[in-house]
Amino acid sequence: MRFRHPDGSTVHLAYCTNVHAAEQLDGVLDQLTNYAEPVRRRLHRDRLGIGLWLARDAARTLTDDPAAVRALRAGLERAGLEVVTLNGFPYQGFGDSHVKYRVYRPDWTDEARLDHTTDLARLLAALLPDDVTEGSISTLPLAWRTGFDAGARERALGRLHTLAQRLDALEELTGRSLRVGLEPEPGCTVETTADAIEALTGPDGPPAHRIGVCLDTCHLATAFEEPAKAVAALGEAGLTVVKSQLSAALHAEDPSRATVREALGAYAEPRFLHQTRARTPDGTLRGTDDLDRALLPGALPTDGPWRSHFHVPLHAPPEPPLAATLPVLREALAELVGGPAPLTRHLEVETYTWQALPAARRPATRARLADGIAAELATARDLLTDLGLKELP
Asked: Would you call 42 exposed, middle or buried from its count of C-beta atoms within 10 A (0-12, 13-18, 19+)?
């Protein structure tokens, strides 16, 4: 979906296909007709943007076979879809029954991460619509924090420098400008926007014109960051918001109540990691790597609110006593695209947790999942039009 900002520029809205589990190219092509095209039809749009997730195997197939790239582009066109952004965070196995910490491997200390992201950039340059010259890719925030020492940091930043050089060369060759955004996430070595600024603007930081930040509003909320301060700090540091992932975290206002902790327990599940943060009355944060650990007696203080890294559908917040961090999403959008000029032009709804929801809230059929994704996009569309953006045909 495309929107005209009041300054005349175009803002793109997509939904991220990492909600679908396919790792091979055939499965990716099936997603276009089984899910993305039905979502587009539900929204009564001639064209719909998708934030494409290409796992390692699918990306390698496309990289090795130009005919496969042409087939994917033709499939996108037939389904009325377009791609201006890729989700390069999960490398493989994101549809497995147990993902947890494995989603952070390989990290930016590993040559495999550099090679995969380079492949994604080349593929995106070939998939961009004819009238679009800028593409974006989100990636993990260097690495998970455990064992990440000074040597690891040097290797990771060195690979980002190499990536920036490759992106420069790619633009010279194709005329397409590709940028990559580190996605701050709780528990990672880059957990907050302040961490991103420290990593990317230090003496060893990569070129800012190529490497910036992907601002995920679920992660922002889980860390109890204030959107206005975070966005302003990024701008003052000269960092670009390459893209923003529109998402909401799970919020518990009063975790001291047994009924609240019981409700949270329904979201503790074995597939994904749900980092949880507690804010105490003096403003300090305490945290655990997963929601089930937070619920252990004494693990976290209960005299302030908790937030958990569980991507809650935008249009369907949990029932009381829980809530979703939709106010953080609204504030972030106002900062990013509500001003005189957009600070990012790529927005992506990213709720990959549909099948991890409590059983009564999971979509039971393919059609119900398409309904939910369409409803999320409609919610995001309304938020954008409320800010003065105009939906384009």
From this structure: middle
Helix (H, G, I), strand (E, B) or coil at 177: strand
The single residue listed with the structure tokens 């929801």 is 357
Give start and end residues of each alpha helix (H) in 43-96.
56-64, 66-78
Using the CB atoms, write b or e for 2-12: b if 16+ within 10 Å: bbebeeeebbb
Question: What is the C-alpha separation between 163 and 170, in angstroms, rounded?
Answer: 10
For helices 66-78 and 56-64, the axis angle rounded to 10 degrees is 110
CA pair distance 18, 353, nearest whole angstrom: 10
Which residue is it, tokens 């994904």? 272
Separation in Å, CA 28 to CA 33, 60, 150, 373, 387: 10, 13, 38, 17, 34
> 204: pLDDT confidence band, cut at 50, 70 and 90?
confident
- Asked if residues 54 and 86 have their Cβ atoms less than 8 Å apart, the reply is yes
Angle at 338 between CA 336 and CA 343, to 5 degrees: 30
pLDDT per residue over 70-93, tens digit each? 999 999 999 999 999 999 999 999
Side-by-side strand order, sheet with 322-324: 285-288, 276-279, 306-312, 248-252, 322-324
pTM of the complete model: 0.97
Residue 89: φ, ψ to 5°: -70, -65
Identify any residues that bridge with 211 across adjacent strands, giving them in sequence order: 180
Q: If residue 85 lies in a helix (H) or strand (E), which one and from where to where?
A: strand 81-87
Taking Cα atoms as reference points, which of 86, 77, 241, 65 lies closest to residue 176? 86
Q: Give the integer Cα–Cα distance in Å for 168 and 182.
A: 18
Q: How far, rounded to the nearest angstrom, does the alpha carbon of residue 363 sit from its chain's CA centroid? A: 21
Nearest to 192 by CA among 156, 161, 169, 216: 216
- Residue 203: pLDDT band (50, 70, 90) is confident
Which H helix or E strand runs over 327?
helix 326-337
Omega cis (within 30) before 321: yes
- Residue pair 302/278 in contact (Cβ under 8 Å)? The answer is yes
Cα gap 269→354, rounded to integer Å: 12
Distance CA 189, CA 186 (A): 8
Helix (H, G, I), strand (E, B) or coil at 146: coil
Distance, in Å, from the CA atom of 87 to the CA atom of 79, rounded to the nearest integer, reads 20
